[in-house]
Amino acid sequence: MTSSPSTMRAVRLSAPGPVDNLRPTTLPLPLERDGWVRVRVEAFGLNRSELKLRLGLSEGVSFPRVPGIEAAGTVDAAPADSGLVPGQKVVAMMGDMGRTYDGGYAEYTSVPLSQVIPVDTDLPWEVLGALPEMVQTAYGSLTVGLDLKPGQSLLIRGGTSSVGLAAAALATWRGATVLSTTRRADRLALLAEHGVDHPLLDTGEIAPAVRRLYPHGVDAALDLVGTPTLPDTLRTVRVHGTACFGGSLSNQWTVRDFSPNEYLPRGVRLAGYFGDAADLPREAFQEIVEAVAAGRLAFPVDRVYDGLEQVPQAHDDMEHDRATGKLVVRVRHGDR
């Protein structure tokens, strides 16, 4: 195996602001650290939380910073007692990646061992690179957030987002009936193509349409839009059902003057999910990866960008909602 270089290419965010603040640069290779794994990044997905960071909506972040809360690649260096060996395929995600330490928008990234999941697969890097955060958030929302059971009904608010489509795929795979929303009529067919049983046009109020299908309400609802839609989402859920606040595509996170008796429908449970790599067991991720490889499960990738210099364009596409499904960057090593 060839030795690691002393420098690497990365995309660094100089300060919150426009996409021009994301600049390709050359940085020293991350040093080896006790309890940390250095990963040679082959691909990474883009996420709304990284857009939030760039727009200055994230707290506790210092700049300049290499963003990126996920990456797929191979082990470059790992602690001797970690069970990982150089060249082994892994994914890394979440924690404080790209926030308090540099993340995945780079040829190499160094992350705590707890954020790394080994994987055995021959999937192309751009396919594997789309999965970590998207699958972790969808899987955690359905399991930890909602405790969804086979045969139950699930509403997804924000259904054409990458996590929304991933949640629909996983829920269908797990035997649930899925209702999913989009604000655009031309995307209803897309939801149906991805296995959604009941695509719904979101006019801002969907509870009446859901109640026409399920007069007593759905068993579970996953709201990925945020606090503006949450009260209406709660009204779609049956007594003793659960709504999970799992994301904020609207970038609105706070409920002002919260009064539980006025806000929460009688008997409806409200949960939140903001998880970590530990919520996605290695065995569960491996099973999902194998199902993808076998064609039993599909997660939509909207487009793949070739090289780190394409990150600003990818961010611009994400900011202006030009994609349905995941955006992935394939890393080209050795470009200087």
Question: Could you give the topology of this structure?
Answer:
Blueprint: E1 7-13, E2 22-28, E3 36-45, H1 48-54, E4 70-77, E5 89-93, E6 108-112, E7 116-118, H2 125-128, H3 132-145, E8 153-157, H4 162-173, E9 177-182, H5 188-193, E10 198-201, H6 207-213, E11 218-223, H7 230-234, E12 237-245, H8 260-263, E13 269-272, H9 282-293, E14 301-306, H10 311-319, E15 326-330
Parallel strand pairs: 8-9, 8-11, 9-10, 11-12, 12-13, 14-15
Antiparallel strand pairs: 1-2, 3-4, 3-6, 3-15, 4-5, 5-7
Beta-strand percentage range: 25-35%
Task: Classify the oligomer.
Answer: single chain
Structural class: alpha/beta
- How confident is the prediction overall: mean pLDDT? 94
Distance between the termini: 21 Å
Radius of gyration: 20 Å
User: Rough shape?
Assistant: globular
Number of strands: 15
Give the low-confidence spans. Answer: none
The SSE string, one letter per element, is: EEEHEEEEHHEHEHEHEHEHEHEHE
* Percentage of residues in helical conformation: 10-25%
Described by strand count, sense and barrel closure, the largest sheet is: 7 strands, mixed
Number of helices: 10
Question: What brief labels describe this structure?
Answer:
globular; alpha/beta; six-stranded parallel β-sheet; 336 residues; seven-stranded mixed β-sheet; 27% strand
